[in-house]
Amino acid sequence: MTMLNLIPCILLGIGAMPLWADDAGTWISLIQGDSLKGWKVEGNADWTVSGGVITGRQGPNAVGGDLFTEQEWADFELEAEWKMRFPGNSGIWFRRAAPRSGYQADILDQPTHPGVLSGSLYWMGKGMIAENRDASSVNKDGWNQLRIRAKGDLIEIWQNGKKVISARDSTFAGPGSIGIQLHRGKPFEGMEVLVRKLRVRGL
């Protein structure tokens, strides 16, 4: 590793620098200890970090919110583990460049979407692009492994080792932020989403 590559890592610990990697293909962790450095909060959800785990809960009166990286990616591969206290509506945003833009790998279990499971692909402003209906790909009682690969117009999602989504869409080509959503609403009161081992590399 060159001295140039080390500079972002050093600065990350002393300022509000975004998380980034100098070389494409280098995995970088998006959770740095018990800090939200490199992230920006939108809305009024309650976000905390402890032991390398980001936890999101609704704010007063069941308000929601989002957490977004300061850094942006267009083509990338992402890995994470998630767990949720259901029923709930959350997800991992990507290629989010402005309000009402971006895609989401859903973390979902609600009566208004019967049979539509976590790992489904959502397009902000339109709805579901592709649905995961494989119940064996979701562990509702524990941690789930998630992998997202976005290259050009091809978006692929794996959950717990199974490819659950392969879709093509060029609406949001990027670059855009990666994020975590916590939906608002009384139907999800008490919902809690936890994300750990969140890392990304550019393609």
Can you give a write-up of this model?
The radius of gyration is 16 Å and the shape is globular. It has a single domain, classed as Sandwich (Jelly Rolls), CATH 2.60.120. 5% of the residues lie in helices and 51% in strands. Strands 1, 3, 4, 6, 11, 12, 13 and 15 form an 8-stranded antiparallel sheet that branches. Strands 2-5-14-7-8-9-10 form a 7-stranded antiparallel sheet, with no helix packed on it. Strand 11 (144-151) and strand 12 form a beta hairpin. The chain is built from 1 helix and 15 strands. With 203 residues, the protein is mainly β. The model is unreliable at 1-22 (pLDDT under 50).
What does this entry show, briefly?
The protein is 5% helix and 51% strand. By secondary structure, it is mainly beta. The protein has a single domain (25-202), classed as Exo-inulinase, domain 1 (Jelly Rolls), CATH 2.60.120.
CATH-defined fold name: Jelly Rolls
The backbone outline, from C-alpha atoms, is globular
Number of DSSP-assigned strands? 15
Q: How far apart are the termini?
A: 19 Å
Share of residues in helices: under 10%
How much strand content do the residues show?
over 45%
Can you count the helices?
1
Estimated structural class: mainly beta
Q: Quick one: CATH class?
A: Mainly Beta
Uncertain runs are 1-22
Whole-number count of domains: 1
Mean pLDDT: 86
Largest sheet: 8 strands, antiparallel
> What is the H/E string?
HEEEEEEEEEEEEEEE
CATH architecture: Sandwich
For this structure, what is the CATH homologous superfamily?
A: Exo-inulinase, domain 1
Oligomer: single chain
Global Rg: 16 Å
